[in-house]
Every structure is written in C-alpha cells, then in structure tokens.
Specification:
Length: 266
C-alpha cells in the first residue's frame, strides 16, 4: 500500500513540478542561445527572456517549499484528510509517502537549478576541460584532507539528506501541532514551528554543554586535538548525521502519534 501512496503522491505533485522544470530549461536554452549569437548586445527580447528565467528559478525554490507544506497540510489535515484516513493504511505510511516524495522533489529542484546555472555560465571550452580539472581537484582533495574524496562526498550526501529529512519533519510536526487547535490552525502551525525549532536548539545546546562538562575531565579535549584533519572531519560529519537521525526520528514519532491518537480534522 505504501507503494500506491508514493505513486499517487508523485502523480499529484508532478503536475506542478514538471511544467516548472520544463519552463526553466527552455528559458535556459533560449538565454544561452542569445549569449552565443550576440554576447555583446543586450536586446529587449533577451532582457524579457532573462527576467522570465530568473523568476522561474526563484519560483521553483518557493514552490518546492510551498508544496512541501501544502501536500501535508491540505491532503492529510484539510478536507482531503477525511478520505486519506479512511484508506487501509497506517498514519506512518502516510507520513513516509509525503516525506519521501517531498524530499525527492527538493533534490530534483536543486539538481535542475544547478544544471540550469551551469549551462548558463559554462562554455564549450569549460566542458572539454572539466575531466582534467575534476581529476586534479580530486587529487588535491586527497592530499589536503588525507582521505578518499569519494568517502567525503558520500558522508556529505548523507549529511545533506539527513538535514533535508529533518527540516521536512520539523515542518510536518509543526503542522500537526497547530492542528490541535480548534481555530486559527495556520497561525498555530507557524507558532508551533517557532516553538519546535527553539526547543530543538535549546535541547541541543544543553546536551552539548552537558557532554562537554562530563568529558572535560577525561582527556576528551586532548583527544580531539590529537585527531588528524581527516579523522576530525569524519567525526564531525558522523556526529551531524547521528544528530539529524535522532531529531528526525523524534519528530516522526511525535507526528505519527498526533495523527494516530489526536487527529483533528475539524
């Protein structure tokens, strides 16, 4: 059933994202063609085309955030929620489907935006030189960091994905908390978001302070200073990944409990 939920969610959201991606790539090519044909002359059509390009690029970022909020808020806790919660699925499956597809579109939007910018700024000479430059950069990273660049990028990808999942789950939890109110639920969700982020930051600060106090007398600081750059980098990245997993899991569990035990669709 989770597969059907994912398929439905992708189908519903692709109606918004795919046309946006198409418009962005179209005006990317149009502007690139303008620059190739006459790079020294800025015409009115070129100005209009560039304006549409910039607006679309910014619009994709804004729409991605809005769709992340709207699909959870309207589809689960709005009028559509009466239908969604009559399906033979558990609340956690609904959350997973929203989280997965929202994360997918966030990644896709970022990738399309980066690709668009690269097409705009890179020339044919840059593309020919890219393999050589990339190889040299990887060699320099290996020498400077003392670790495999592939391992570094793998851990960085995990860190980014964890941060994305954590951010989305904080939004979902805030919406679920705001819907505990009988009125002004949107305002309540915004207030819950501020409260949730404040609590997370406060708890994180307290835990870091407590750990530093507990470990300060056991040579922990000396051990950290003795670490190599590669070991210190990996320790920091995996600490961040574990932190993101804990916060995401906590937000997921609380959101699931609210949808299961304290669902309010009125």
């Amino acid at each position: 059933m989770l597969g059907k939920l994912l398929k439905y969610e992708i189908k519903a959201t692709s109606r918004t994202f795919l046309p946006l991606f198409g418009v962005l790539l179209l005006f990317t090519l149009i502007n690139k063609l303008f620059f190739i044909i006459n790079p020294s002359h800025f015409s009115l059509p070129q100005g209009i085309s560039m304006t549409v390009y910039v607006v679309t690029l910014v619009g994709i970022i804004v729409v991605t955030l809005l769709i992340t909020i709207q699909r959870f808020y309207k589809n689960l806790l709005g009028d559509e929620g009466y239908l969604m919660f009559t399906l033979p699925v558990r609340p956690w499956q609904l959350i997973v489907s929203k989280l997965t597809v929202s994360g997918m579109w966030n990644i896709a939007s970022t990738a399309v935006a980066i690709l668009s910018v690269l097409v705009m700024v890179l020339g044919s000479a840059d593309l020919y030189a890219f393999p050589r430059v990339w190889t040299e950069m990887m060699q320099d990273m290996r020498l400077a960091m003392g670790m495999s660049p592939a391992l570094f990028f793998f851990e960085l990808a995990l860190l980014i994905l964890g941060g994305l999942a954590m951010g989305i789950m904080v939004i979902y939890l805030s919406i679920a908390l705001g819907h505990q109110l009988n009125s002004k639920k949107l305002l309540g969700s915004f207030g819950a978001f501020l409260l949730t982020t404040t609590v997370i930051q406060s708890v994180t600060t307290f835990v870091v302070w407590l750990l530093s106090k507990l470990l300060s007398g056991h040579g922990f600081g000396e051990w950290l200073n003795s670490l190599s750059f590669a070991a210190g980098t990996q320790l920091g990245m995996w600490t961040g990944i574990v932190y993101e997993i804990i916060i995401t899991a906590a937000c997921f569990a609380l959101t699931n409990w609210l949808l299961k035990k304290r669902l309010n669709l009125e």
